[in-house]
TrEMBL record, chain A:
Keywords: Biotin biosynthesis, Iron, Metal-binding. InterPro entries: BsaP_C (IPR058605). Required for the activity of the biotin synthase BioB. This is Biotin synthase auxiliary protein. Its cofactor is iron-sulfur cluster. Residues 58-77 form the Biotin synthase auxiliary protein C-terminal domain. Signal peptide: none annotated.
Automatic annotation (TrEMBL), chain B:
CDD domains: Radical_SAM (cd01335). It catalyses: (4R,5S)-dethiobiotin + (sulfur carrier)-SH + 2 reduced [2Fe-2S]-[ferredoxin] + 2 S-adenosyl-L-methionine = (sulfur carrier)-H + biotin + 2 5'-deoxyadenosine + 2 L-methionine + 2 oxidized [2Fe-2S]-[ferredoxin]. Keywords: 2Fe-2S, 4Fe-4S, Biotin biosynthesis, Iron, Iron-sulfur, Metal-binding, S-adenosyl-L-methionine, Transferase. Catalyzes the conversion of dethiobiotin (DTB) to biotin by the insertion of a sulfur atom into dethiobiotin via a radical-based mechanism. Binds 1 [4Fe-4S] cluster. The cluster is coordinated with 3 cysteines and an exchangeable S-adenosyl-L-methionine. Binds 1 [2Fe-2S] cluster. The cluster is coordinated with 3 cysteines and 1 arginine. This is Biotin synthase. It comes from Arthrobacter liuii. The lineage of its organism: Bacteria, Bacillati, Actinomycetota, Actinomycetes, Micrococcales.
Length: 79, 341
């Protein structure tokens, strides 16, 4: 398993073609497009659920001090 | 810590009554009285919170109990609690996943390092099967070898045999929430009944474990139902009541419910304290969204005497340091570790 920071933006949100929060198509730029501004805010309160690269739902593990999110294709994102 | 009486307390009859009945005599308010507290106007809120705070100081003391929680099995639950992103019956983005034991032990150590004395292991299940019970036993043994912390569990509905096993393994507290008032429950859960929840709560108490039995408010229940819930919880005499505020989750039936008003949330905190003067009243999920940073302080000065630090089961909390620094600032000592059982 590898860590791929490229799968997430500043807080695991975008930097890929999909939004980490809602899984919708995203330009991938930061700041996020208008459509996903709320998603980026929400990503300070919860981990991303979708892989920003492929939109697969990730296996997310939350612990008191951190979280990890794993895409079966693109690896693990850890915060 | 003595506090000069808030002048407004005498201006509202229900607060004056509560001052005598709850603060002085230690008897919680009745359902009808709680409804009056929940209906107090905004101007009365500071006085209600102050009274609740005094009740907490008088009957529980200054200590704040700090806890960390962890999900050993996330998602894929067969139940349909309409607020829950972990139900497998909704189109929620939360995927089923198990935490391995080394990660669990690491989380227990990190939790203890914050000064927390409680570590609660939670599973998204209707009730535990043999595989989960074996995992729990193994986890408890590994945590006990590694760190000094009280272990609590929340594994859904239990059989008598499972209750006895958990008690024998040294689980000192068991969480099983009522979530909402009996009269609103069928609107929120259809796959099991209120009675089934009460049965597990009763068995837990009878086995000598501390009962942690919580509430989730802001799900569309009326104020009457909120008062009903507080009274129903009080009747169970739980050791702890975790108070959650709805965080509407994508894909669940309550996703469009909206976030509850912060003042209503604070009124509920005061009311729950006035219903249960001696119970550990814990800030649980949703406070970041409903109340923000300021609300955390208001609640701790309004009847709350316990917090969950760090993240929740599927969502993120405030950084542990933010809460711990606030406790220092408020001059509230963290409750010290005492191995129970
Ligand atoms: S039983 Fe627990 S995990 Fe399952 S749907 Fe209800 S609240 Fe969620
Ligand atoms: Zn989005
Ligand atoms: Zn991917």
């Amino acid at each position: 398993m590898k860590t791929v920071p490229a799968a997430g933006g500043a807080n695991g949100s975008s930097n890929g073609p999909f939004c980490g929060h809602c899984g919708g198509p995203d330009g991938g730029g930061l700041p996020a497009s208008d459509e996903h501004r709320r998603c980026v805010e929400l990503l300070t309160l919860e981990p991303p659920r979708y892989c920003a690269n492929c939109r697969r739902r990730m296996k997310v593990q939350v612990t008191p001090a951190g979280w990890s999110a794993e895409c079966s294709r693109h690896g693990v994102l850890i915060r | 810590m003595t506090i000069p009486a808030h002048p407004a307390i005498t201006r509202y009859e229900i607060l004056e009554t509560a001052s005598e009945q709850v603060l002085e005599e230690g008897r919680g308010l009745t359902q009808e009285q709680l409804l009056e507290v929940l209906r107090l106007p905004d101007e009365a809120l500071p006085a209600a919170l102050q009274l609740a705070h005094e009740v907490r100081l008088r009957h529980c003391g200054e200590d704040v109990e700090v806890e960390g929680i962890i999900s050993i099995k996330t998602g894929g639950c067969p139940e349909d609690c309409h607020f829950c992103s972990q139900s497998g019956l909704f189109d929620s983005p939360v995927r089923g996943v198990w935490l391995d034991i080394p990660e669990l032990v690491k989380a227990a150590k990190e939790t203890a390092a914050t000064g927390a004395t409680e570590f609660c292991i939670v599973a998204a299940v209707r009730g535990p099967d043999i595989k989960l019970m074996n995992q729990i036993k193994f986890a408890i043994d590994r945590i006990n070898e590694a760190v000094e912390i009280n272990i609590a569990c929340s594994l859904g509905m239990l059989t008598q045999h499972q209750v006895d096993q958990l008690a024998a393994w040294g689980v000192h507290r068991y969480n099983h929430n009522l979530e909402t008032a009996r009269s609103y429950f069928p609107q929120v859960v259809t796959t099991h009944s209120y009675e089934e929840r009460l049965e597990t709560c009763a068995m837990v108490k009878a086995a000598g474990m501390e009962l942690c039995c919580g509430a989730l408010i802001g799900m569309g229940e009326s104020l009457e139902q909120r008062a009903e819930l507080a009274a129903q919880l009080a009747a169970l005499e739980p050791h702890e009541v975790p108070l959650n505020f709805l965080n509407p989750r994508p894909g669940t039936p309550l996703e469009n419910q909206g976030i509850m008003d912060g003042k209503d949330a604070l009124r509920a905190i005061a009311a729950f304290r006035l219903a249960m003067p001696r119970t550990v009243l814990r800030y649980a999920g949703g406070r970041e969204l409903t109340l923000g940073d300021l609300g955390t302080r208001d609640g701790l000065l309004g009847g709350i005497n316990a917090v969950i630090v760090g993240n929740y089961l599927t969502t993120l909390g405030r950084p542990a340091d933010a809460d711990l620094n606030l406790l220092v600032e408020l001059n509230m000592p963290i409750k010290e570790f005492q191995k129970s059982l």
